[in-house]
Amino acid sequence: MTIGILGGGRMGRRLAAGWAKAGHTVFIGSRDGEKGAQIAAEIGGGVRGGTLEEAKTNSEALVLATPGSVVENVVASLKPWENRILIDITNPLAGRIPEGLITRSTAEAVAEAAGDARVVKAFNMIFAHIFDNPEFPKGKAASFVCGDDDEARKLACDLSADLGFEPVDAGPLAHARMLEPLALLIIKMAGIHGNDIAYGWLSRDK
Ligand SMILES: NC(=O)c1ccc[n+]([C@@H]2O[C@H](COP(=O)([O-])OP(=O)(O)OC[C@H]3O[C@@H](n4cnc5c(N)ncnc54)[C@H](OP(=O)(O)O)[C@@H]3O)[C@@H](O)[C@H]2O)c1
């Protein structure tokens, strides 16, 4: 499928490279179209690049890979979303990591700002370098996905599997209020255990 990535930073580049390798058509969008094209050339594998608007126009599904602090402006500037699937990987990080629970998720703010996008939360609690090898001695790193649209949630699960993760359906978008603090927790825990860590998923159903 065609996937557009909004933001060519650490996460955007890894997602683009991984999905291109898995056979998807990937377009990486930057605020500066020339920079987007340059990033795409560096990634290779047939990835194309340009502006954020071009990424949206050229893609069936979009990934929001900008800082969490700017997501509302970014998605509002790209309206209308015309029912596109929008995978939000961002976290509510603006400087200091909050110590307590959050009362409103970035994912819900994205959905509200976009209006007519089918928003799912995914990949927010997986460190960028883990995408280089999601396989751990006891199994694959888990990719928790939540969203209100069944098709969008399934797509984000399938795209997680394409990158080598264990997809886990985590329910409706409101659960992002609980998934986003897990990203903050693992960042804190990297200070104790080092950063070669990821969440896993155990189930007796398999
Ligand atoms: N790094 C991780 O391990 C990790 C893991 C999970 C989730 N996340 C989340 O994923 C998101 C991206 O993380 P990252 O590590 O890839 O960040 P990053 O390396 O800083 O890249 C973010 C990209 O967003 C774009 N950007 C910056 N300010 C912007 C603005 N005002 N408007 C539009 N685009 C803007 C920039 O691209 P251009 O300059 O090309 O426009 C930049 O390269 C963050 O929300 C982060 O919390 C990160």
> What overall geometry do the principal axes of the alpha carbons give?
globular
Which runs of at least 5 residues are low in confidence (pLDDT < 50)? none
First CA to last CA: what distance? Answer: 28 Å
Q: Rg to the nearest angstrom?
A: 16 Å
Q: What is the helix content? A: 25-40%
The main pleated sheet reads as: 8 strands, mixed
What is the mean pLDDT? Answer: 95
Q: Output the strand order for the largest sheet.
A: 3-2-1-4-5-6-9-10
Number of continuous helical runs: 7
Q: Return the structural class.
A: alpha/beta
What hetero molecules are bound to the protein chains?
Answer: NADP nicotinamide-adenine-dinucleotide phosphate
- Secondary-structure element sequence? EHEHEHEHEHEEEEHEH
Number of strands: 10
Q: Which percent range describes the beta-strand content? A: 15-25%
Short précis:
With about 210 residues, this protein is α/β, with parallel strands linked by helices.
Structural summary, described in words:
The chain is an alpha/beta fold and 206 residues long. It contains seven helices and ten strands. The chain has helices spanning 10-21, 33-43, 52-57, 71-77, 106-114, 150-162, 176-193; strands at 2-6, 25-30, 48-51, 61-64, 85-88, 118-121, 135-136, 139-140, 142-147, 166-169. It has an eight-stranded mixed sheet, sandwiched between helices. A two-stranded antiparallel sheet has the order 7-8. It is globular and about 40 Å long. The two termini are 28 Å apart. Bound molecules: NADP nicotinamide-adenine-dinucleotide phosphate (NAP). NADP nicotinamide-adenine-dinucleotide phosphate binds next to helix 1. Residues 7-12, 30-31, 35, 65-68, 70, 74, 89-91, 93, 123-124, 126-128 line the site of NADP nicotinamide-adenine-dinucleotide phosphate.
